[in-house]
Amino acid sequence: MDQDAFLLGGELPVRRIGFGTAQLTGSGYWGPRGERAEAVGVLRRAVERGVTLIDTADNYGPGLAEELVAEALHPYPADLVVATKGGVVRTSASAWHVDGRPERLRAACEASLRRLRTDRIGLYQLHRLDPAVPMADQLGALDDLRREGKLEHIGLDTITADELEQALSLTGIAAVQNRFNLIDRASEAVLKVCEAHGLAFLPWFPLANGALTAEADSALAEVAGRHGAGRGQIALAWLLHRSPVLCPTPGTGSIVHLEENLLAAEVRLSAGDMERLDALAPGDVAPELPA
Q: Which of 29, 60, 76, 124 is catalytic?
């Protein structure tokens, strides 16, 4: 397996730069962002360019992003892994709540199967742990779905290192999706657990919700200039170099931006580059939204 690939769940090979679908929906992940045909075109181009991991969620739209994935890519290529999420319920562009009741998770997964036009989801992620429901019950519901063949691997979104260790004591976990980027490394402890257990870490907001592409910091600009690359490309390359388990899935509604993001896999940062970038101080990031 080369440095640009990862074995998800120890068995599904994926390119380490995937594609996230949140940006195909409108503000607050509510409704459409632009023309449907444009979103479909971006998804198709991503796969044409070698993307093998598509990350989506039932609450993007809600439901819209999954429908777009199916419209663009079904029947799915044999090497494509479609990951989706359930457990967060959107009621408006600015309102959402967590619902991890086993019956709700089952209903959410089965609805995603219908929208994605598939009988099995490669990676199904619990979008948030529900503090009102025992973790064992939430993961037990996903285990039941896995035994029934409706999902292949289980992932977790926005958890602590202690929660991840607890989850691993209950069932097999293939991936984690926490916020992590060049200027927000609060999930370092979670990353270490992922490395120890060989779990994929899919960092959300890998470009700090656009802050890094606008950042004029001299270190980031200096490294970018030396490589003839954009700041966003360097930020993604830093993730790829930072740990072999990091698999960013940047999203965009633009084919031009998609092409730029994918070129980050070709950037080879030196030890000096990494030292300069590692020294960047964490900065403010956008308010949390369901990733």
A: 60
The DSSP letter of residue 286 is P
**pTM score of the predicted model:** 0.94
Q: Alpha helices of the chain — where are they, by DSSP H?
A: 36-48, 64-73, 102-116, 135-147, 161-170, 188-197, 211-214, 218-227, 231-242, 255-262, 271-278
pLDDT at 72 over 70: yes
How many residues would you count in the chain?
A: 291
Annotation says 60 is catalytic: yes
DSSP letter for 228, please: T
For the segment 104-151, what is each residue's pLDDT rounded down to a tens digit? 999 999 999 999 999 999 999 999 999 999 999 999 999 999 999 999
Reported for 172-176, long-range contacts at CB under 8 A and 24+ positions apart, including other chains, are 172/9, 173/197, 173/199, 174/8, 174/9, 174/10, 174/123, 174/199, 174/200, 175/8, 175/9, 175/83, 175/123, 175/125, 175/199, 175/200, 175/201, 175/202, 175/247, 176/200, 176/201, 176/202
What does the block give as tokens for 287?
């308010």
Name 70's Cβ contacts closer than 8 Å, sequence gap at least 6.
115, 116, 117, 118
Exposure class string for 234-264: b at 16+ Cβ within 10 A, else e: bbbbbbbbbbebbbbbbbbbeeebbebbbbb
Residue 85: both structure tokens together: 């999420």
State whether residue 280 is helix, strand or coil. coil
Tell me, what amino acid is at 17?
A: I
CA distance 281 to 291: 23
Quick one: tokens of 141? Answer: 């519901």
DSSP state of 181: B
Return the SS3 of 62.
coil
